[in-house]
Amino acid sequence: MVAALREQHMMQLKEREVATDPVVKADARKLNFFYGEFQALKDLSMPVHEKKVTALIGPSGCGKSTFLRCFNRMHDLYPGNRYQGEIVLHPDNVNILAPNIDPIEVRMRISMVFQKPNPFPKSIYENVAYGLRVRGETTTRVLNEKVEEALRNAALWDEAKDRLHKPAFNLSGGQQQRLCIARALATNPEILLFDEPTSALDPIATGAIEELINDLKYKVTILIVTHNMQQAARVSDYTAYMYLGELIEFGVTNEIFIKPKRKQTEDYITGRFG
Amino acid sequence: MAYARTLEDIRALIVKHKRWDLIFALIGVLALMIGILTFVALFVDMAIKGVPRLSLDFFSNFPSRRPGEAGILSAWVGSMLVMLVTAVVAVPLGVASGIYLEEYARKNIVTDIIEINITNLAGVPSIVYGLLALGLFVYQFGLGQSILSAGLTLALLILPVVIVATREAIRSIPIGIREGAYALGATKWQVSRDHIIPYSTAGILTGVIIGMSRAIGETAPIITIGALTFIAFLPPSPVTAEPPYLSFEWLTSPFTVMPIQMFNWTSRPEAAFQVNAAAAGFVLVLMTLAMNGLAIYIRYRLRKNIKW
After folding, report:
1. Are residues B106 and B195 in the same domain?
2. Which of A107, A121, A167 sits opposite B184 (nearest CB)?
3. Are residues B156 and B40 in the same domain?
4. Which of A39, A125, B227, B303 has a CA positioned 20 to 30 A from the CA of residue A160?
5. A121, B306: Cβ pair inside 8 Å?
6. Can you give the pLDDT at residue A73?
7. Which residues contact B83 (CB under 8 A, 6 or more apart)?
8. Is the pLDDT of residue B254 over 90?
9. Considering its fold, how many domains does chain B have in total?
10. Does residue B15 sit in the same domain as residue B48?
């Protein structure tokens, strides 16, 4: 069973090639993170490559979502959270965790798609346009263009174009999640974060989102947390395996899944653990 | 019997346990009936006495020494104007406080203390607010025994209710919606303006109206600040024929309100005045029910497009 799964992975993964000389878009350096007294991330260092998909995998509670949420300073919304170390964003070499960097500035550069689809109780159009409105865009023509472009990029335009001004809640779960992707894309983010984007969706909607992620990586750098190893294998170019707040192994997805360097990673990949 | 072993034992046990279901259901129905029947009896009694007295004249006449000619004109106009001041003052203060506490304030011991105190303030006897208002608004600020003083007093009284309702409404917004907005780079004010306030409006309005329907029946604090019990004139009109067309003179006018008019009539010896009091009470209850109905309707309308 396990052997068959790995065989299948190999077949899928061989089709994909990873550039030999990837450009680093962001770089976690000795990152520690604390929820009050509890240390959730320990000395984590890894790169995120530009216009590639990087997957974070690991058992529940391993800190993968916590790590992801450092990238847009989501932890700043709640009291008692503390960062140590750096996440350096390239090419301008700025540590986005630095206290003098406004989290709002970081969130304007790095967008996020959440676990549960979270459209605003507004129209489809207003959902997609919100990021632009926050940035002060008021010209209807520009908003129309950007909304259309984002919806096309999120593969939702055909389904949504005739009901742009209808409530977003009337969409199905999968469509809502693509709407949230469109909303995150509308402002041309440098990195797009996905926090288990398909865990609340059925298999067909999940397939559509995975396909979308595959298309999007030519436009934007993607960092995705997934609880589903097969999904990581299907969509990512790089994979990081985390356990108890530590990075166990980071590498090209093919290598992590076929020839992991560490025993712990292998145990998790093969299902002997987790 | 030890514990149930055989199927017969289990069945017997279930029958025994279910007897308590029945007993408690009966107790519950009885408890409910005591409450409902008492209210219905009071209301029906008041309606039987009062409804025949209701006529257009009753609404358009000033109080009088002759019970047959006495009306509630100055009382209902006074109640309306006082409610207007109460709403205009309590809503912005309460909503802004609620939003500040939920969205802006750091969660620490100070906000905890404030939170506990707000909840406690909602339970302070209304006469205490009346005493405070007498010292502060009537004498210290020199606002006198006016509609403005009364409105401010009742605003103070319902402020905790509005704050608590606002916070509850904000808390019912799923965390994902707020994070979604913050993740797009919105500031606290943008999130409050574009999301928190619109999505919590239904809950806030419900809280405001429930507070107002409590305030409209308040008697003690209004008497304390010195509302008149007999008044045969109306406050100056807020709308005037000459520019600037709006006048705020009514704010400083003496006044009376519905419950005080009722109180005044019930304290008279003549039976005919008791009928007047019942009629006024009936109108007051209808006003309160209408406000609660409005609250339910608003909640239903505004929540139609919000599903969480």
Report:
1. yes
2. A107
3. no
4. B303
5. yes
6. 95
7. B151, B154, B212, B215, B216
8. no
9. 2
10. yes
B93 within domain boundaries: yes
Please give the ipTM for the structure prediction: 0.89
In a domain, residue A274? The reply is no
CATH of the domain at A102: 3.40.50.300
> Is B177 within 8 Å of A72 when comparing Cβ atoms?
no
* B282 and B145 belong to one structural domain: yes
| Single residue among B53, B72, B87 that ends a domain in this structure | B53
CA distance A120 to A130: 9
How many Å apart are CA B238 and CA B291, to the nearest integer? 23
Inter-chain contact B180–A118, Cβ cutoff 8 Å? yes
Select from B184, B190, B307 the residue whose CB has the most chain A CBs within 10 Å, as the one to mutate to test that interface: B184
What is the nearest CA distance from B308 to chain A, expressed in angstroms? 10
CB atoms within 10 A of CB B263: 18
Residues of B in contact with A121 (CB under 8 A): 177, 199, 305-308
Task: Give the pLDDT mean for A174-181.
Answer: 94
Q: Does residue A178 sit within a domain?
A: yes
B1 lies in a domain? no
CB-based contact A134 B182, cutoff 8 Å: no
A110-113 and A191-195 beta bridge pairing: parallel
Beta bridge partners of A89: A26, A94
The 10 Å Cβ neighbour count of residue B170 is 23
User: Which of A113, A114, A163 to mutate: most B Cβ within 10 Å?
Assistant: A114
CA distances from B285 to A87, B58, B211 (A): 64, 16, 15
Pairs across A and B, CB distance < 8 A: 66
Each residue of B103-139: pLDDT tens digit?
898 888 898 899 899 988 888 899 999 999 999 988 8
> Position of tokens 């205490």?
B128
Do B171 and B297 reside in the same domain of the chain? yes
Return the top range by mean pLDDT from A146-160, B50-64, B226-240, B268-282: A146-160
Question: Is beta strand A24-35 parallel, antiparallel or unpaired with respect to A81-89?
Answer: antiparallel
Q: Which of B46, B74, B300, B85 is nearest to B212 (CA)?
A: B85
Res. B219 pLDDT band, cuts 50 70 90: confident
CATH of the domain at B222: 1.10.3720.10
Average pLDDT, chain B: 88
Residues with Cβ within 8 Å of A40's Cβ and at least 6 positions away in sequence, in order, are A33, A34, A63, A66, A245
CA dihedral sign of residues A178, A183, A184, A187? positive
Place of tokens 């109905």: B293
Q: What is the pTM of this model?
A: 0.81
Q: Do A180 and B176 touch (CB under 8 A)?
A: no
Smallest CA–CA distance, residue B187 to chain A, in Å, is: 7
Residues of B in contact with A107 (CB under 8 A): 182-185
Q: Do A79 and B186 touch (CB under 8 A)?
A: no
What is the mean pLDDT of the segment spanning A241-255?
94
Domain containing A207 equals 2-269
Residues B154 and B41 in one domain: no
Question: Quick one: which of A13, A78, A1 has its CA closest to A259?
Answer: A13
